[in-house]
Amino acid sequence: MAGNAVRSQGLLKTVREIVRPIGQLVLFSAGSALILSVIALILAFILDQTPVGDASQHTFKMNLLTFTAANLPQVVIDGLTIGFVYAAIALGYTMVYGVLEFINFAHSEVFAVGAFVGVELLIFMNQQGMLRGAPLGLAYLYLILAMAVGMLAAGLLAVGIERTAYRPLRGAPRLVPLISAIGVSFFLQDAIRLTESLATGDFHRIIPTFGNFDTRLSLGKVFIGTAPVNLGISIKSIIVIVAAVLMLVGLNYLVNATKIGKAIRAVAQDRPTASLMGINVNRIISLTFLIGGLLGGAAGVLFALKFTRIDPFVGFFPGLKAFTAAVLGGIGNITGALLGGIVLGMLETFAGAFMSSFTMGAAGAEYKDIFAFGVLILVLIFRPHGLMGEQVGQKA
Amino acid sequence: MTKRFLVMLSVLVIASIALTACGAPPTEAPPPPAPAETEAPAATEAPAAVYEGTIKIATQSPLSGGQSSLGTAIKQGAELGLEQLGGPLRDMGFTLELAPYDDQANPDTGVANAKNIAADPEILCVIGHLNSGVALPSSEEYHTAGLAMISPANTNVAITDRGYPEVNRVVGRDDVQGAVGGQFALDQGWESAYVLHDKTAYGQGLAEFFRQKVEALGGTVLGFEGTEEKANFDPIITPIMASNPDVVFFGGIYDQIGVFGKQLREKGYEGALLAGDGADSSTHAEIAGDSLLAGAGTFYVAVAGPAKEYPRTAQFIEDYNAKFSMPPEPYSNQAYDSAGICLKAIEAAATAAGGMPTRADVAAAVRATQDYEGTTQTVDFNDKGDIIPTARYFIIKVISADPAEWANNELLAALDIAPE
User: Fold this and answer.
1) Among residues A23, A86, A126, A22, which one has the least CA distance to residue A240?
2) Chain A residues closer than 8 Å to B242 by CB
3) Domain residue spans of chain A
């Protein structure tokens, strides 16, 4: 009787841990999309009364409000896609911070290594003639294989970094491992560059075209005025979103509903006590890095799939943005990383898409990062622990 | 007490000695390099009519990174030129060497290399660069050193408009190239254009000239924007899709245009995509794939174009293939010709000087080049260093997504236009 109750309770917990993050995800996506849309529409309405509206009439043959409304759905889709890429990388930062309370700046290079290993595997398969004309099922299998290999390489690398560059410094002041991380980051950038240059003669790699990933699914046309606005999403964007959701759900389940997760949380809360309870702290920390590395590697391959071209410094900007996303959401908090990623991606895409028309071309999409980092500053001033701040005590 | 005082005193004395020691060298140090520079040519000049020593020709282009396929073409073209056309100088008794430098398409690296090149007295001529944004600051160094530079690829107007006697080019200019693009767009009936550029001297300059021409001909420019983005173009594409232009013009290099074009087509853009000579590389097809053929198609204005379009290049293509096991990319025969002009000028200057020529002699001889029979055309330079009587501009349509077929893209027009 009691056993049954415990089991059903366990099952309930499992279901809850799977459903909860998906619910949060939908909520965050819809919420940030709604808030930003309303802000954009209000701004467009106000600007329509100024010369900016006339300029819009001239360029787009419609007033600014119509222009904004017509573009909103596509901007939301684009924002979500890039947001999920940031979220997937941010998970790695947040995992490590949750356990060790230090920022693993080498994570962006772990991400890059994952991307390179996956892409090199695909290039090799392409040279063997396996990719061109491969049936759809096989193409997906190859992609999953490339992701798996990229993840494995990145995961092992992360564990190796922890063992050699961080563990010997564990008792040192907090700045010391941070500097070590930056050093590792530079080292890895140049190591990738050297290896690729020696092995292939070119350190910019291009992911081969195969499967139907570039195909765009049309979600219909929005006709406003004379200009048809195509609504659509490419299959690779869907893959990015689905993979990121799976990663989040899997991680959330692992941390909150399994024995290993309990051990990770225990180490995060109090390392000496956890060790007294019979938890092998070193192993748990290695495991945390492994998980963070696996997630980073997967994100790297997804990034290469989405954006075609990679180089040894490819991790720098996404890494910086993902770190920002993690801080924005409340670093150390898994849900926060996701929220931060989505908010940052959305904000960036909204700013990029509308800035040039709202400023009559004076400030174009190139200034989009100002908004992302401006919001970060505001959040840090008013909520120093990030958007999901109150849960910081209950790390990772 | 006295012991402590002595210690302090001795420390002070040592410190003051150290300070004066530190202070002294700067006044003594500068002289040695100066004589070394002036003496080096003088020493080789002294034994009259003796043709011996090493002459180096430097190349500077991106040999690594995203633009390396064009940069390598420049280096390899010059290498082949030195090998095939260096006979006369070798027969005179000189040893010829190629000194390839990698500027990584980065102005800082280019200038640092240029300083090294200027400091190497054996280098008498520079062939480079690929990017105008790198060539502009680097050529300041060559100008200071009085070192001749022949550019096989730089089209920005300021390259020659500064009037430096050392700086020459064997390709066209962006004011003409942009105008050719603008004229072509309007001729095709593309009334509205959206213009992007990569914020470099080359890309922005070209985009400006394109915009001016389109507006002068009565077309509409719906937007004009610069971006350094290399991965996520979604935010930039949104206003393009909304304004629905007939043509999108991108002043930039293929590593950026390829990724942009791919994403633009994924969004369902149906119009034409037009670019400058920076788009002219087979790697472009590797990046963009089938998206090159989507909508109204992808076009580019080229100043180098496929090697096979020139009348005297059959032998060059064959030799290049044999030596490097790859077909020549754009700018390789321009680099080959630049090497030929360098060698010819050095030969003339050496004969006149009766020995190792000075850099100034070579620079003057390069500028004085008369009717050099290159693989691309007969080359003369005007008083600014632009190629005369005309430079050639191609308008090319991409017809295959296969990188191996890049040289066979459809040639829509080849125009010979004189610099203004």
Assistant:
1) A86
2) 60, 67, 70-71, 227, 229, 357
3) 11-382
ipTM: 0.83
CATH 3.40.50.2300 fits B175-302+395-417, yes or no: yes
Predicted structure pTM score: 0.82
Three-class DSSP category at B230 = coil
Across the interface, of B228, B239, B262, the residue whose CB is closest to A357 is B239
| Alpha carbons A98 and A327: distance in angstroms, whole number | 12
The residue with tokens 């000496």 is: A272
What are B158-215's pLDDT values in tens digits?
999 998 999 999 999 999 999 999 999 999 999 999 999 999 889 999 999 999 999 9
Domain limits, chain B: 53-172+308-388, 175-302+395-417
**Distance between A317 CA and the closest CA of chain B, angstroms:** 10
| CATH 3.40.50 holds for A11-382 | no
Contacts of B68 in chain A (CB under 8 A): 202, 204
Provide the angle, in degrees to the nearest 10, between the axes of the packed helices A259-269 and A281-307: 110
Which residues of chain B neighbour A214 with C-beta distances below 8 Å? 262, 266, 289-291
- In our burial notation (b when 16+ CB lie closer than 10 A, e otherwise), range B80-113 reads bbbebbbeebeeeebebebbbbbbbbbbebbbeb
Helix (H, G, I), strand (E, B) or coil at A279: coil
**For the domain with range B53-172+308-388, which CATH number is right: 3.40.5.10, 1.10.620.20, 3.40.50.2300, 1.10.10.10?**
3.40.50.2300
